[in-house]
């Protein structure tokens, strides 16, 4: 708490800093507590912030206590106890800029057409085409100089008695002040552009759909056409395709005119859309179909196995199954036909075995194509720990991986089956489900009933080592060993995601809570809210208010890390989402659990520590927490360069600023 307060103070976020220091007073040891108290006193005494109400601003302490009426317009942050604000005076009304101290006293009652903070504490002034400079807020201009150039005057043309040059030397520590940069050109939108006409700042685009990232790439659409976006949010495969599929093994499948092709993560077309079918790669080979026949391509797009088969499976353990002339054939990756079989069907190889069908009977062969389990069984499970359950003539038996019958089961089970693959990568059990007399239980590979036939239903998918069970209309949880973790209590339990699952607390399903894998309730979902699955450490939460839906994000404790203020959201890069509402944009940073509220017209450079934002036609900078570091006051900006300088356009002039938003004076 103390350290975070120090950080916020260093960033000029005094109100948030005070809140952290006040927490440190309550929870830290006496030494840090006393230090925090002293810092709070200093912040309250020396610094001021602005509070807004009905479009007007008041000066307040860093505790949020107003010390002036709400009477100021368009104020900028306080700097050395002084702030700039604007107002309209005279007839007709003309906008002027003023300096105000922390007590609310206006230091420049006549006002100026422009006031620009200058590096070192001074201010550059402008009235019509007359320009001047003051070294401090308590000074008055000694000399006004005419200037019709689109950049500020150099120090030498503003200095009348050497005082300004002395000021500059003092602030620069003897170094020569920065020279005016070469003027940048602007495009028709008023944005700075380089010599080729490319804008220095490109606002973020809003796309129709952006799917989840796979292999560092996400499918992205606009106006019904699809392409791919990389993790930085750059569209590297143009949105010109009718359909795309998720990236897998470094490639994405594209469809144009009902033909399939292939692109890589660099956006290069490896295979033009020419195939009727094209699958994902498996072991360096992908199934394709051309002129109604199937074959294989490699990762260069070369057809390495010709399209001569009516069926082709993916490669697994170096082998694939194809069909030609009604016969199933096993081939290797070179396309060599190793054996032609008489089976009606062959599955893919797994753990050195493949399931085979002869008529309606099932068995297994090994990679030498020897029948290790003769195809005489009506049902047969996959192997777990070298054992499988098989049924023949209503008799269930346990087989070893040589096909030997180890045990005959006494009961006439309706069905024995394993938990589904895919979502069970972290399921460590050696159990299978069984059904008998319309009840479900669990059986181990020795044929022992670990869970007696008690439950009405057991889910066939195990996630996070938890299985949902149902009894008398209520749902609970068991673990892979069959131990009941949570007695059937809830009307409904959803699947677990990142160790959390939603449950229905009330019969009418109106009350929803979230439980952990121990069945302990972590939080209850607020009324009129709906939570989505947890991914990347957060979950989207929608709130229904009157006729509108607002989206926010919660962490694993149920706390809102993004308040429900957006009408929609869309991915804009790996771990980043645009927040959208009524034409305004914000950003959510997943890893940091921070956000920029959706109050800006444009956002650019979202990966930078300082994000460029635009509102009411003006550009500025904010951090990932939404704190405006440099106010939105510029007509055009560039990113900060390696010397921590950015070029800006303000009041019709082009100049450079430092990271405090101060003009860099030049000689």
Give the number of DSSP strands.
Answer: 61
Mean pLDDT: 90
Strand content is over 45%
**Which spans have pLDDT < 50 for at least 5 consecutive residues?**
173-179, 421-426
Please give the radius of gyration in angstroms.
35 Å
Per DSSP, the total helix count is 5
Structural class of the helix and strand makeup? mainly beta
Helical proportion, percent range = under 10%
Outline the biggest β-sheet. Answer: 4 strands, antiparallel
End-to-end separation: 45 Å
Spatial sequence of strands, sheet with the most strands: 5-6-7-8
Shape: elongated
Comma- or semicolon-separated keywords:
5 helices; mainly beta; 667 residues; 45% strand
Write up what this structure looks like:
- By secondary structure, this protein is mainly beta.
- It has a domain at 529-637.
- It contains 5 helices and 61 strands.
- It has a 4-stranded antiparallel β-sheet, with no helix packed on it. A 4-stranded antiparallel β-sheet has the order 11-12-13-14, with no helix packed on it. Strands 15-16-17-18 form a 4-stranded antiparallel β-sheet, with no helix packed on it.
- Helix 2 runs antiparallel to helix 3.
- The protein is elongated.
- It starts with a helix and ends in a 10-residue tail after the last strand.
- The relative contact order is 0.07.
